[in-house]
Amino acid sequence: MRKLKITEMNRLTVEEFKEAEKLPLVVVLDEVRSLHNIGAVFRTSDAFLVNRIYLCGITATPPHPEMHKTALGAENTVDWTYVKHTQEAVDELHKEGYTVLAIEQCEGSTLLNDLVLDKDKKYAIVMGNEVKGVQQEVVNSCDGCIEIPQYGTKHSLNVSVTAGIVLWEFANKLMQFRLG
Questions:
Q1: By CB neighbour count within 10 A (0-12 exposed, 13-18 middle, 19+ buried), where does 16 fall?
Q2: How far apart, in whole angstroms, are the C-alpha atoms of residue 56 and residue 28?
């Protein structure tokens, strides 16, 4: 096997990305404090054609050199909006017809591997603060909670890791609707 060169990967240009049809998927960052996590979410969102990112509360906004270290320019490709209160973003998304799901360990949560999506729906996922998770008032207004099954001694994953796992699962399922 030979590793591909960047020129062989047929990646979209920034202009092509801006024009590309995005998935019916939005990410909401609820009080995420780490610039590494924010940048990583931008980069993963770019990889999976996420429609938009909502940056809420203390979540930093571009441009920022520390965010750029992990975003690698994705902060310039993925559309984003800053909203002071996460609840306002969730309310706006509901008005726009999105099914809003918190990524959180909750009573009655759906395990990610059991997730079933509807091809006629738009989805928003809410990722929470590194220590406190998604605010309870935000969880209360979501349409459900998604939980990543975990089998070790730890009961949480880093925000950037969680985003990668969850966005891949959503993108994989939503892309199947396009192909099918």
A1: exposed
A2: 7
Q: How far apart are CA 114 and CA 14, in angstroms?
A: 34
Cα angle 53, 180, 174; round to 5: 15
CA distances from 94 to 26, 88, 132, 142 (A): 12, 10, 24, 9
Bond preceding residue 149 cis, omega within 30 of 0: no
Q: Is the pTM of this model over 0.85?
A: yes
- Give the tokens for residue 70: 């992990």
Angle between helices 35-47 and 159-179 (to 10 degrees): 10
Amino acid type, 140 = N
Per-residue model confidence as pLDDT tens digits over 37-76: 999 999 999 999 999 999 999 999 999 999 999 999 999 9
How far apart are alpha carbons 74 and 78 in whole angstroms?
6
Check if the beta carbon of residue 37 is closer than 8 Å to that of residue 64: no
